[in-house]
């Protein structure tokens, strides 16, 4: 008598899943940055620009945080680690595209403002970008796994509480006197909220 092994439906952390998912995420990030630049250049009115830019930032943050977990079906340690690795690959793909396009385009899509901060080096920010992308996917995977323990971890169920938390964090920061541009503040608030929900999910599973 022979037996067949059912394919794994969760926690896919194999090389192909990570690389393909990371490549898709990197291309998506390139598209989001291009859209952001188009809005900043061609949409009239500062308020309209800021609102649209903020929506792009939040949509991209949701994708970068939760799509890796969906692709790896993160439920336990392997899937969560796979999601974090997917986020890292996504930042690497974007970095290569970013550096390449800046070399071949006849115009500078955006100013390279990190030169003075980095002490004359353009490259110091890349590891920070890699860490941020990995962190977001890692935290998103924890939130996804926590939601899976209570029901179907749809994108809406995972992202909606984090978005609501980001709204609260951003509002408190604004009332406390934060003067950052709205897209920057929204991205930072989302990251803080995401980390908070991830820690809560981790605590519930222990």
Structural domains: how many: 1
How do the helices and strands follow one another from N- to C-terminus?
A: HHHHHHH
* Structural class by SSE content: mainly alpha
Low-pLDDT residue intervals, each spanning 5 or more residues: 1-7
Helix percent band:
over 70%
Shape descriptor reads: globular
CA distance, first residue to last residue: 40 Å
Provide the gyration radius in Å: 19 Å
Sheet with the most strands, sense and barrel status: none
Overview of this protein structure:
The chain is an all-alpha fold. It has one domain (15-110, 126-204). The chain is built from seven helices and no strands.
Write the layout of secondary structure elements.
Blueprint: H1 15-42, H2 46-72, H3 77-104, H4 114-117, H5 125-148, H6 155-175, H7 182-204
Helix pairs in contact: 1-2, 1-3, 2-3, 2-5, 2-6, 2-7, 3-5, 5-7, 6-7
What are the main properties of this structure?
206 residues, single chain, disordered N terminus, mainly alpha
In short:
It is built from 7 helices and no strands. The chain has 206 residues and is mainly α. It has one domain.
